[in-house]
């Protein structure tokens, strides 16, 4: 030590003395982390302070060399783990083991758990190191350039971090100058932030300080603000240290800064889960492999060894699993149904109320002195005395209490008073109770002087209850604590003039049971004098011991009590003191007071045995006989004691045990053990194999005493002794992870070791060979039940097993009735629970494992109301579970519950009637099917009786498995209770022929995985469809630990309802529903949601709930989000509002909305005061919503809506700025519309069904296709879309096979798409009726004659159909007019000439005399009402339609020159076919080509789909022949004799085609035209391309437009996302709708999302390549180049063809929409490329605005298609559809186009 001291006194080499502080501390090396490895120096300015410090240090011991060595070793290990790889491995390992890594590191690296560890002088080696460092290293170190650069680097990094703006308070100088190793920041949630950073790979910590707040010694007056201890505390509570390693790359520092920002944001959100256990295990394994790689390498050559070991391990695993399964299947584990039933029959009245219900009718008057009040029986007596204080006239209650474990008298009394048991009696306690310090087992109570009675009131009675209840005490100790203490108390009672002395003894003073009931009198000690025995016991005790055995006493406790009884009675008699002795037998937990199940603070008797069994402290008791166990509830003992104290009872000795007559009302110990095991099994507190093993032990040990002794020695005693032996070593090992862990471990082991012999000690009482029978005046309370009390004992036992230091709390028994089915622990335990399950196949076990894993990711706890399970034990009739439908998790949870309880209850896995939507989901659908689900179409049965369903139901009835049916049908979006449906029950009733039991099953969730999406639906957004991809994505998130915690799901079964052939289904479902509502429960999270919604404080809400006797369970969320997200908040609040106490006080209409279809009469009434505020606040919100709904309803009516539907009203409420929350808007819409109560989510609700018109139908595929045109819809009569139920599910279907690409399958998706996009409910049956055609007025005779004179009669058509059809185009206005049979002006006649001469004749006739008007018509496909007759006011002449379709011949074709002459009336399709005969094509293919004509194209300047290759009509027409009243105009070039070749360009004259094109028939009638034709293409190839979004698609189109014409595809159309969906929905018809197809679709989706394309945003291009092979090849090459440049993905030719076919389908779809009052029209215009990005958004905005302005229901459906590419721009076409139902003037919306601004 000397040289060190000298050197340390030497001046500092650097001369640095700190910053001038009073005391500066310098540390070296790991001083902070590893207990002074490098040492430290304190520089103290003040000499006297320095001296005092030195003096203090001198008094401390010197740290030993061994300790130093230990420190160095730890430092080395620690250093080794500092490499990132090993550190990561350590983190993973520690976290996998379930420890908090941060805490473990702190515990490991710091040893300052006791001050003694640092109150040591440094060891000599440390001082030597320090000296060496100061002398040689220090200077060099400061000059060391690497250190300098390291410091500079750290500072640089710190600066960089600070510059990044961390968003947190930084504890650093602005330049980061004082940031060396760490950068401290302050935030509100440091642990969470640190955890978040740790998860992102940054070693941040929030616990690296052990500094603690020290109260300032300075007086408050001198305390400066800067030195406030609270500031330091605040700092320590908020600090997070960010790692600033000099090796950190700048990019990593940036990432760290980003991570900090994110972590700070996410620290507001609920804590993210720990990294997925799977990943951790992987990391751990990899880490392990890394550490052990040398040994692994040495193994490599012997691979066969690895294989054989692996096989051996597998074999062992298999065998172990089989043994475990066998044990788990022990038949005795099957639950006793009565025990389950007992759970719900626990005492209803408890506590003070129970005492008051049983008055004693006795008086004590005065003060009472009580001993043992802090014990179990004494506590019960104290409670009873206080509860009856008034009744008995007790004015003072003096408790004689000893000091214990440093606690003063006051502490102990306060502790007693504050205990849960006296909650009801605190006031009386404060008024009556006083403490008196004294220890009955000490001479003169430990008092130094003689005490007088310290109270004013006279002492009336003394109750001595204190006593040491240890059976195996040495004789003397037992004599002191039980005899001396009692006699001393009796003497005190005499001295203080008490009138009565009551002594609590034991019923087992009767040494042995007898066949006769034991009497309430002193036990016979034969010739032994009690006083002599006492005297001997107090000396050496050997004679007393002999006497004890001789008299048959099993232990010193009962023996000493027996002696005490004799002596006390003798002494009291001598002093004329009234004496009573109360003899309880085994005192069990309370029946009713202080509260049910109360069992004191320490486990004792039967409760203790239960605790030991549950904690494996003891494996087996000997339960040889089935005699009732002589247990008595503590409260009944207390009541008898108080009664005795007050003078009640006939004799001086009172047996506080069950009378012989009632003995059978107590279970035997074996009975208790067996049921206890069953309870443990059902509660999942012990694994089934272990319990099965215990059950077997129980049976073996019952059979034979020899077996018991051996098993007991082996299983109870030996392990405890071994454990006790190794305890010392394990304590040390555990100390590494923290002292508290080590302490807890050692105390537990000590207790268990001391208990290992209890099975032998208990045996005489618990399971005697002869039954204990007592004569007793104690009577059992009303409602007593063996099973109920058994249950109470079990719960109390388990409560102590859970926490041996704390007794069962209030409602413990009731809480115990709740069974935790699942709560995530580890993947290993999940695997264990699933795979060792008896009686199930591997598939089910695997499914259970997967389910458990998945629930674990969501940290969902699943619990069941235990008592409710009783219903499952009585399974005489087939069982149908009727759960609420809240989540996709429902059937998963129910399956899990049944799986888990399968060996314990006679229940099998249910067969689920699942929605057919699941059936087509790959993976999930298959898994469900494999697990026994069968698929039904919701609501289908109501429409079409489903024989398949009946067959499925029949199969279920035969299988014997329960059936699970979601009667609500649809998942409740807002956790309301939806109307129950009867379709499936009907099938069940009709087919079962026997009674079926319907069991309601309430599912109460906290949070749901779908909360967000359900809320979105409530807000009016479309429903997210189920998809396997979604499921896979969810799994991925689960594996990554990113799924949010869900809290708890609580299940409760209702009582069974019988479904018989004669049952009235409505009554039945109404009862089921009532139960479902009543069984729904809430947690504090629901209350929080209510509090936030109603802006009330949470305690107030909780209080209100309590006042309405609504049990509120604590939330299972570790950190409930606060405030709750909107989506979850409303769901939770509405769930709470459905509960009767609250719902009944809401306006009745709202109550009915919350619980649909509940027929019960709702009693309203004034709420209790505490509920009034809550109800008032709720009602206020409802009324506001209702008022807003009324306003909207009026506004709608004013705007022309005739019938305001609920959906329409809702939409208004949501779109208007009403500030009504969406869930309430739904309610308000329902209440105000008052038209039934539709479900959330826009599903069609049953409007009054109209009898459907009878239509003659033929099979679609068999019908012969006829080109007969429709009158009031697009296309041909045989082809249209219709809606119908297919297999009970609505679908759209096309009636013919005209368009192969559309297939023939029912288009379910199309029907859904309509509803989803338009957000209006559609009803298949609610179709616009077909009306009869109106008759037109007769044709004027003059006209008829004129026409007949001009043309042959057969050219004339005068029927209404022809006249109406000719006068209407295919624009929406025309078609709607026809559909609604709106009268108007139509043609007087239609003529169809077949030659140009006939046309000329007609025109001449028209010009004659008054004449008549002639309008040429072609295909009448115009969309501009171009063929509509002018009003009479404009042209009063008769009107004749000149139907040009009679002129439809190809006059000649000159393929060589590429020209042809064709008559104008030919339709596009005819023309195409005709030209094909000449191997040429015109290439003109407008979408309307099936009907439109060449003349029409010319007259309207039409454009075709293949414009890019062939051009528009103006590019094709070379010559026209124009018929006029004055003759035909024909502009010829060259020699008329060479008609076919005299075509060519002319430089002079106006070109006639130029005049006629677009003339709309005003200049004359085009009778024929010479057009360009081209050879038929060699190749026609369809293709499609997907682009991530519209914008990228549009840019790509622009690039294609820039290609030279020959390189462009013939057709190139871009469709937006909505149109793509439409195409997909149509394509569904051509594809097989099977699971395989869905699987393929899922794979495709997965591939697309991998490529960054989401189908919900993508845009698609359909392409048609046409031309010669080299041409097409070249085109494709160019296009492919552009596709890859713009991130497109090829979508295949099938999709291309489907997209092309959509062209033909669109018009049919428009008319299909009209059937359901959905009006649609296309907006088309030319847009220059420069404005293309603005137009589509602007159109959307304008359309939405218009829709809103007109208050139309639902949403407009819009899509955009870019159809043509021009050099200067493009031609977007925007189909727009809106529902017009219930509007008075539906066409108003189209009267003025929307005002598009861009
Ligand atoms: C579903 C659908 C798809 C369509 N797709 C396209 C498309 O892709 N490209 C496109 O450009 N248009 C399209 N249209 C619009 C329409 O098909 C065209 O305007 C077409 O050219 C009209 O031809 P039509 O034979 O049906 O003429 P009609 O509708 O009968 O008449 C249109 C006008 O031409 C006049 N007319 C007709 N024949 C003669 C004649 N021989 N001599 C003088 N005047 C005459 C009529 O008096 C009338 O004014 C479509 C329409 C619908 C309903």
TrEMBL record:
Cofactor list: FAD
GO BP of this protein: lipid biosynthetic process
Entry EC no(s): 2.5.1.26
Example of a GO MF term: acyltransferase activity
Pathway: Glycerolipid metabolism; ether lipid biosynthesis
InterPro entries: Alkyl-DHAP_Synthase, FAD-bd_oxidored_4_C, FAD-bd_PCMH, FAD-bd_PCMH-like_sf, FAD-bd_PCMH_sub1, FAD-bd_PCMH_sub2, FAD-linked_Oxase-like_C, FAR_NAD-bd
Record key words, sorted: FAD, Flavoprotein, Membrane, Transmembrane, Transmembrane helix
Gene Ontology cellular-component annotations: peroxisome
Entry coiled-coil feature ranges: none
Keyword Transmembrane carried by entry: yes
Parts of the chain that traverse the membrane: 23-44, 281-300, 306-328, 366-387
Site (Important for enzyme activity): 1613
Pfam families: Acyltransferase, FAD-oxidase_C, FAD_binding_4, NAD_binding_4
Residues annotated to bind FAD: 1487-1493, 1500-1503, 1560-1566
Name the UniProt record assigns to this protein: alkylglycerone-phosphate synthase
Family: Belongs to the FAD-binding oxidoreductase/transferase type 4 family.
Stretches assigned to the FAD-binding PCMH-type domain: 1383-1576
Keyword Iron among record annotations: no
Chain sites annotated for binding substrate: 1710
